[in-house]
Design brief:
The chain is of the alpha+beta class and about 260 residues long. Helix content is about 50%, strand content about 15%.
Length: about 260
């Protein structure tokens, strides 16, 4: 009992009990700065924001680990706690990448063989609750011909999550539900591709020419900062890939092309 209490105190210590007023409500502070386009100010503030978020994630991970050791919890709850733990670890990876971007020094890429089909399945599972909430039908089409790619899994996971979130947001704004198609395969040069297409109504004509610029968004004020596609472009370029976006009045399709293992040898 004393050991458990000590563990709880240690975990709680990760979350500041008296946060600095400057950073106590990032959900309000950051959108205001981003909408103002004060890029330099935001980059100066990001390390502190990342630090606070990292503390919060460590608290969640600590309690998830602690609860899993309880012999009285059900098998279902234990599986839910493991899902929380996996999501928390991935979030911590992404914060590390953002920290490197904020400091102006790119994080070291860790290239390794990646199964693109498996990664797409993982990311779609993470988005499952959002899909259900917005009455979205997921239509996966993972070709068995999809080659293994050489990539950084954490960066690519960020890219796919950001693109799926955009597709989900587009359908939610339209209302009435919709469909998101996720397709993988091999192109004519032996490289892998993944495409994400939604029927959320297409991109605003004013936004299309500057999609990859920071602080650009067609979402209502305050809902998104407009950094998703900017970071997606940076990461895809680092991974020696290409990104193409086509949009009409009724749909938007994003296609990523990534170097495969067989195309590199």
């Amino acid at each position: 009992m004393a050991k458990r209490k000590k563990q709880e105190e240690l975990i709680r210590g990760l979350a500041p009990s008296n946060p600095n007023p400057t950073f106590q409500d990032w959900s309000q502070v950051l959108p205001q700065l981003l909408r103002a386009g004060q890029g330099e100010t935001v980059l100066n503030l990001l390390p502190s924001a990342i630090h606070e978020l990292n503390n919060a994630i460590n608290t969640v991970l600590g309690f998830a680990d602690l609860l899993q050791s309880e012999p009285s919890i059900s098998k279902t709850l234990k599986e839910d706690l493991k899902a929380i733990e996996r999501a928390g670890l991935r979030a911590r990876e992404l914060l590390g990448a953002l920290r490197s971007l904020a400091s102006g020094v790119p994080a070291q890429i860790q290239p390794m063989p990646v199964d693109l089909k498996e990664l797409c399945e993982q990311v779609c599972n993470l988005m499952a609750a959002s899909f259900r909430r917005n009455y979205i039908q997921l239509a996966p089409d993972y070709s068995p011909e999809t080659p293994v790619i050489i990539s950084d899994a954490s960066r690519l996971r960020f890219v796919l999550l950001a693109l799926l979130q955009n597709a989900c947001d587009a359908i939610a704004m339209k209302g009435g539900g919709g469909k998101i198609s996720v397709k993988t395969g091999r192109d004519q040069f032996g490289n892998a591709f993944v495409s994400i297409e939604d029927d959320g109504g297409g991109l605003s004509p004013d936004v299309r020419p500057k999609l990859f610029e920071p602080f650009v968004t067609d979402k209502p004020d305050g809902e998104r900062a407009g950094l998703g596609l900017f970071l997606v472009k940076q990461f895809v370029t680092e991974l020696q890939g290409k990104i193409e976006i086509t949009s009409s009045e009724t749909s938007t399709k994003v296609t990523l092309t990534l170097p495969s293992l067989e195309a590199l040898v």
